[in-house]
């Protein structure tokens, strides 16, 4: 595997001989090209391994059904023919009502025990002072607020934070798996993997589950010492991996984008950036039913991440109403004064 | 929603792709590069389903580079196109097909320039000009009308501008900018992004 060779890992292959079985089986020296064998999930006695079975790959002991086609995963009756083209559109932007009325389980043969939670507003952007990541805290479950104070921004290590969107359980699990893999990488190679590398790792780990019900849409916000500083990546379980300066994910993301696109600029101060992120989440929670309750804010700099106090948005709503009332009263007073001065000639 | 176009001249190939990376109704990135450099004189343009594009294109890219490392010389564009098509065909008949539409453009020392059109059903066709996406419906007749086999580089860029004008006029999606590249015997050259002045 390319990453292994680059890191000089091959010298340890004798220690992990049982994981390298597939690697030796699939490298045919007669063949000119390296076959991408493990797309077919070969049998390894109950362990699910990605391509080549190297130690850097995911090692999760799971039940037998994961050895079969990922399209069959989760189906009650295994004889149902999979539809490879019916990949659910919603995974990239959960609970958005476009296109008209796609149900949350795109193939009718999969009976879900309950509706999975998909609504959220998360955003992240970089500016001269680092990276800001903000999210709401509402976990919804088909119209019911399952938890009003969930944590949607999870720190992965001291200089990397990930926002979560999609299925909460999947996001939490995969963040932990990513944290473990990054820690192992750090121990083995004596340096931290860059944000881009972490994004690529997560993307490749999620790839075998494409086409299943797994839904993870995360933005990884980090600071790389050896590269240019702040870094922001969007990773989705449908395979998208984008590097950028501003991302917002979730059902409330269009509302957040419209606030952020107007006022964002690289030269903002930290206070301005924090205020903008708060405002964007607040407006999104106001309009989106599946986002709400509180706002969490993390600020990542060269010295690591800092967590801002969780803030209730209900208070913000009442404060804004109060400000509006005062402005209206002020305007009325000014008009009365103007009228009064006109009357008194 | 995405758009690719390629125009082959007597000694060059001009290719362009839009720069939008979209997710449902949101444009997540405005400067996304859909071209993958397979070798010094071969470009692979790839659109289609979200994760499949990058996965498949990077797989082909790494294998072409591996061939060069193993054998000391590069694959020709025709060989690269056929290799890509074979992989698409093999995965099409597996449980995990790749839903990608491709244009492969390259320059060969002996055969000259070549433009290969490939689609997700693993069809391949060597064509003088080609386009992918909904925008192709609007621009193929322009290409049919104004294309000449011996067009110069400037004429090719003018033809490309005509196509983009038509897209801006009639296509329902907003595609604000296009990356444009030209391949000839000296390799891959980056041209100015179109429309002129687009960021």
Automatic annotation (TrEMBL), chain A:
Residues 336-345 have a biased composition (Basic and acidic residues). PROSITE patterns: PROTEASOME_BETA_1, PROTEASOME_BETA_2. It comes from Clupea harengus (Atlantic herring). Its EC number is 3.4.25.1. Keywords: Cytoplasm, Hydrolase, Nucleus, Protease, Proteasome, Threonine protease, Zymogen. Residues 323-345 are annotated as: Disordered. This is Proteasome subunit beta type-11. It is found in: Nucleus. GO terms for molecular function: threonine-type endopeptidase activity. One of its GO terms (cellular component) is nucleus. One of its GO terms (biological process) is proteolysis involved in protein catabolic process. The 26S proteasome consists of a 20S proteasome core and two 19S regulatory subunits. The 20S proteasome core is composed of 28 subunits that are arranged in four stacked rings, resulting in a barrel-shaped structure. The two end rings are each formed by seven alpha subunits, and the two central rings are each formed by seven beta subunits. The catalytic chamber with the active sites is on the inside of the barrel. Incorporated instead of PSMB5 and PSMB8. The keyword Nuclease does not apply. InterPro entries: Proteasome_bsu_CS, Proteasome_sua/b, Proteasome_suB-type.
From TrEMBL, chain B:
One of its GO terms (cellular component) is nucleus. Keywords: Cytoplasm, Nucleus, Proteasome. It is found in: Cytoplasm; Nucleus. SUPFAM superfamilies: N-terminal nucleophile aminohydrolases (Ntn hydrolases). The keyword Glycosyltransferase does not apply. Gene3D superfamilies: Glutamine Phosphoribosylpyrophosphate, subunit 1, domain 1. It holds the Pfam family Proteasome. One of its GO terms (biological process) is proteasomal protein catabolic process. Its main location: cytoplasm. Component of the proteasome complex. Belongs to the peptidase T1B family. Component of the proteasome, a multicatalytic proteinase complex which is characterized by its ability to cleave peptides with Arg, Phe, Tyr, Leu, and Glu adjacent to the leaving group at neutral or slightly basic pH. The proteasome has an ATP-dependent proteolytic activity. This is Proteasome subunit beta.
